[in-house]
UniProtKB/TrEMBL annotation:
Cofactor annotation: Mg(2+); Mn(2+)
Keyword flag Transferase: yes
Subunit relationships: Homodimer.
Keyword set includes Hydrolase: no
Residues annotated to bind ATP: 16, 204-208, 279-281, 327-331
E.C. code: 2.7.2.1
Reaction it catalyzes: acetate + ATP = acetyl phosphate + ADP
Class in the EC hierarchy, top level: transferase
Gene, per the UniProt record: ackA
Name of this protein: Acetate kinase
Alphabetical list of InterPro entries matching this protein: Ac/propionate_kinase, Aliphatic_acid_kin_short-chain, Aliphatic_acid_kinase_CS, ATPase_NBD
Length: 396
């Protein structure tokens, strides 16, 4: 049956892919090419519960997509079932408010937004061009992380800086993780009828982390800004802080402002505070064995997540649901507990037994009896959204 979609997600030094069939419900094969740009780059295929690894002679995006094409040539039944390709794109600026079929104009638009996402957008554009070259004739769709947040009101998305910066350069809050938030909003409406007419808070917590307020199914505020550096403390990102710190760091270390910014992006957050790791699992193990720095990093992360949940909640009429998603949100009962302990003033409470026993990879209600807000753990599925958008646009 011809209904498979190849989903491609090009990162700056990685490329994730999956082939989804049955209206996005069945994953036929998935994998990741990582360490692109280094001599140790490889691509992993997971097919029928088995993993195989191919070393990449040239560790670049083109070679990674070429390996996917070679794999498909050896599995012709899957290759012949492909009807399109969906690409995750981090930044769509103000040009893209929804997913679109890709043509040269769209590629130009993605490239134009590279100034806001210099690590990601050039990689997306490259991945798209390579896919057109290797899969001629297959329609391709771009799905933007920023699109879901284009419903923010001007008082939420504008920065309090001279308006000429917005008029001439489009400097504003854009927000990210939009594809994840859209999935969570739609999935919650299926498991809790009427939630698409209510106020929903979502914490998407992973190595990159953000919060979002969803009012009647639309994003009304989010914590990330013009780039993913604003908002929560994250794996290696500092999140929001006094902008003067960039100047202080650059003078103290005798480095440029860009180098100081690089420290805030790549050496801060959980990694910077713990001085151990940016990985939550590693830090929880260290904390369990008595490491105070690991505990401090996790508790700071929780405090800031709660703060940004409350911040975006100011755009809601009521807080009917709180959803935890993303790798950390779905798997860390400790962080969910600490985050919710900071939300007691809003009467958001979780049942510690339900929270501890929430099964991995499952949707779960962890609400306490005395909570005003229903609290959920819902695994996100961005690949499904990309596949569904691709099918929808191809069929029209």
């Amino acid at each position: 049956m011809k209904d498979s979609i190849l989903v491609i997600n090009c990162g700056s030094s990685s490329l994730k892919f999956a082939i989804l069939a049955n209206a996005g419900q069945t994953t036929l094969v998935e994998g990741i090419a990582d360490r692109l740009g280094s001599s140790e780059s490889s691509i992993t295929f997971k097919y029928q519960e088995k993993k195989s690894i191919v070393m990449l002679d040239e560790g670049n995006h083109k070679n990674a997509v070429t390996q996917v094409k070679l794999w498909l040539s050896a599995h012709s039944d899957i290759e012949h079932s492909l009807i399109g390709i969906g690409h995750r794109v981090v930044h769509g600026g103000e040009a893209f408010t929804k997913s679109v079929l890709i043509n040269q104009e769209v590629i130009n638009g993605i490239t134009d937004c590279s100034k806001f996402a210099p690590l990601h957008n050039p990689a997306h554009a490259k991945g798209i061009e390579v896919a057109f070259e290797l899969f001629p004739g297959l329609p391709q769709v771009a799905v933007f992380d920023t699109a879901f947040h284009q419903t923010l009101a001007p008082e939420q998305f504008l920065y309090p800086i001279p308006m000429s910066f917005y008029r001439e350069h489009h400097f504003r809050k854009y927000g990210f993780h939009g594809t994840s938030y859209r999935y969570i909003s739609q999935r919650l409406a299926q498991i809790s009828l009427g939630s698409d007419q209510q106020g929903v808070l979502v914490a998407h917590l992973g190595n990159g982390a953000s919060t979002c307020a969803i009012n009647h199914g639309q994003s009304s505020d989010t914590s990330m800004g013009i780039t993913p550096l604003e908002g929560l403390m994250m794996g290696t990102r500092s999140g929001s802080l006094d902008p003067s710190l960039i100047s202080f760091i650059s003078h103290a270390e005798n480095i440029s402002a860009d180098e100081a910014l690089d420290i805030l992006s790549k050496k801060s957050g959980l990694l910077g505070v713990s001085e151990i790791s940016n990985d939550c699992r590693t830090l929880e193990e260290a904390m369990a064995s008595g490491d105070q720095r690991a505990k401090l990093a996790l508790d700071m992360f929780a405090a800031r997540t709660a703060k940004h949940l409350v911040s975006v909640a100011t755009t809601l009429e009521s807080i009917d649901h709180l959803v935890f998603t993303g790798g950390i949100g779905e798997n860390s009962s400790y962080l969910r507990q600490v985050i919710c302990s900071h939300l007691k003033a809003l009467n958001i409470n979780i049942d510690s037994t339900l929270n501890e026993s929430a099964p991995r990879g499952a949707e779960y209600d962890i609400t306490a009896n005395n909570s005003n807000t229903t609290v959920w753990v819902i695994p996100t599925n961005e690949e499904l959204m990309i596949a569904l958008d691709t099918i929808s646009l191809i069929q029209h």
